[in-house]
Design brief:
Blueprint lengths: L4 H5 L1 H4 L24 H10 L25 H10 L6 E2 L6 H5 L8 H24 L5 H25 L3 E2 L9 E2 L3 H19 L11 H13 L1 H4 L7 H14 L23 E5 L12 H7 L17 E2 L2 H5 L15 H5 L6 E2 L26 E2 L22 E5 H14 L3 H15 L10 H12 L5 H7 L30 H6 L11
Antiparallel strand pairs: 1-5, 2-3, 4-8, 6-7
Helix pairs in contact: 3-6, 4-6, 6-7, 7-8, 8-9, 9-11, 9-15, 11-15, 15-16, 15-17
Length: 521
């Protein structure tokens, strides 16, 4: 069913990468050893690096040093760092470093931040390796693959910019210490716009959802433009450009009729596939990972819940009162499972389980939650499942087949609406949301929109998908004096320095070219 499964499964055989990325620049000591560049192997490794941890999967021979290999996976790291410090839910396992993320008090020594930094930089390095070794190739296949890998490098640099501001930057493999761009975050933003536009020219039109295409580049460009004020430190806005690029995708893609099917085990072939632009493939038999959809399913499931197509139930990530309340004004009165709650609250996206009146407690806060087993203290999230839309389970009893719908048209639709709103086209934005996003969810039309309503709609559409922090920052609600929203664990005003993560102290010590983000040591 998933055309790349066998290719990804053979990566451990055909690739020779190690966790030390500088090995990519090292010549063998033995002159009888000839190093050969395997273009297809590296190409597929770059794609595999979004949803797997290393060469073997689900663990063993990890790309980067990690105590828990599952946490080192690209997608799970995005989830951890974009959801943990927000109102999107609560993690109750007391892993070292997690409390500091939940409570917005991380330092340059945080182990999770270091994993994020190292994963993104490792991915960039492999992209550079591919692009250096193909720069003189002019055949059609190489031109296409180079465009895709330029996108992949830009994607990783986008997250480095979003999380770290002005990270070390290099487009070449070198033993020299990389430097930060002289123009800072603003310069990296400009480079990303130019790079994505250049890649877009050579990317394919609609292709397999397992390969990036022109519309994937357009969604990322629209996201950059929508957040331009953040990334240029208030110097510029680009809402007209965000509208332009989002509209190209809106015109090319429909929304899925059934929201829940986007996160099911057969989302590569069920009706929802028409909305997915780029997916991170997962296959219970062939592509196993503790850091992609299997983790998303397992972390949200527990005892006495309906079948979810896996034997794993980690009981560690549940909703927050703030998340539940964007769907229900009085959540303590609503009892049901994921088949009932959408109808009870009037929104198909409300995929939660709350089986007893005691299943919602307003005060779910602070370190007292860690390791207490308080998974049932708020609604369980049932958005991700290993079941197929037909009701059957997947190929494996533990690992799910659910692809990660990493770039989907729903983002372009929301971006388009917000871009209209930011330009004063409020009536047009409201009508677009009601006629598309709300209609798909079978939700009552919104009577009006403002910043709070729009921010809540982003949450309803994308909760538990690893992006909440980005939206809160753009709306000025993550930190700073103007942030009016508070959530459990964050009742005090958050210092604005936490809009960025600290560059790991170990990298600052090793590389004198790096300037630490303001406020961190």
């Amino acid at each position: 069913m998933k055309t790349y499964s066998k290719i990804f499964a053979t990566l451990a055989v055909v690739l020779g990468f190690t966790a030390c990325v500088q090995d990519l620049n090292t010549e063998p000591i033995d002159p009888n050893i000839v190093q050969e560049f395997d273009q297809d192997a590296v190409y597929y490794k770059i794609y595999a690096g979004l949803g797997t941890s290393g060469q073997k999967g689900p663990d063993g021979d990890c790309d980067i040093v990690a105590n828990d290999e599952g946490y080192s996976v690209f997608y799970r790291l995005l989830f951890v760092h974009n959801e943990f410090p927000t109102d999107g839910g609560w993690w109750i396992w007391n892993d070292a470093g997690v409390p500091d993320l939940l409570e917005c008090k991380w330092t340059s020594e945080n182990a999770f931040v270091k994993l994020l930094y190292n994963r993104l930089n490792f991915n960039v390095t492999v992209c550079n390796h591919f692009l250096e070794n193909t720069e003189d190739k002019t055949d059609e296949k190489s031109i296409r693959q180079r465009a895709e890998i330029r996108f992949m490098r830009a994607l990783n640099y986008y997250y480095l910019m979003d999380f770290f501001g002005n990270p070390p930057f290099s487009t070449k493999i070198t033993v020299d210490n990389p430097t930060q761009l002289e123009g800072g975050r603003e310069a990296l933003y400009a480079w990303l716009v130019d790079e994505l536009k250049a890649a877009e020219n050579d990317l394919e039109d609609k292709a397999s959802t397992y390969k990036v295409n022109k519309d994937a580049a357009r969604v990322l460009l629209a996201r950059l433009y929508l957040n331009a004020e953040v990334y240029t430190n208030g110097k510029t806005t680009a809402y007209a450009e965000a509208e332009e690029y989002a509209k190209k995708v809106v015109d090319a893609y429909e929304l899925a009729d059934n929201y829940a099917e986007l996160f099911m085990g057969d989302n590569d072939v069920n009706e929802s596939a028409k909305e997915i632009i780029f997916a991170i493939p997962q296959d219970g038999a062939m592509i196993q990972s503790w850091g992609a959809s299997s983790a998303m399913v397992a972390m949200t499931r527990g005892t006495n819940m309906n079948d979810w197509g896996s034997t794993d139930k980690w009981e560690c990530w549940r909703s927050s009162p703030e998340l539940v309340k964007v769907f229900a004004d009085a959540p303590e009165t609503i009892i049901g499972d994921e088949t009932q709650i959408p109808g009870l609250v009037g929104d198909d996206r409300a995929l939660f389980c709350n089986k007893t009146a005691a299943g919602f407690t307003a005060g779910c806060e602070g370190p007292g939650e860690y390791g207490t087993g308080n998974f049932n203290k708020c609604w369980a999230i049932c958005k991700w499942t290993g079941l197929y839309s037909t009701g059957v389970a997947g190929k494996h009893t533990q690992f799910v087949d659910t692809d990660v719908p990493f770039i989907r048209a729903g983002e372009a639709y929301m971006t388009y609406a917000e871009a209209l709103y930011r330009q004063g086209k409020t009536a047009e934005a409201l009508a677009f949301i009601n006629d598309n996003i709300r209609k798909r969810a079978h939700a009552t039309a919104l009577p009006a929109i403002d910043d709070d309503v729009l921010l809540d709609e982003w949450q309803r559409e994308f909760y538990c998908e690893g992006r909440r922090r980005i939206d809160l920052i753009r709306f000025g609600q993550f930190s700073g004096a103007n942030a009016t929203r508070a959530w459990e664990g964050h009742k005090a005003k958050r210092n604005k320095k936490y809009n960025l993560y600290a560059i790991p102290n170990s990298d600052c010590i090793a590389n004198p070219n790096i300037k630490q983000n303001e406020g961190f040591e």
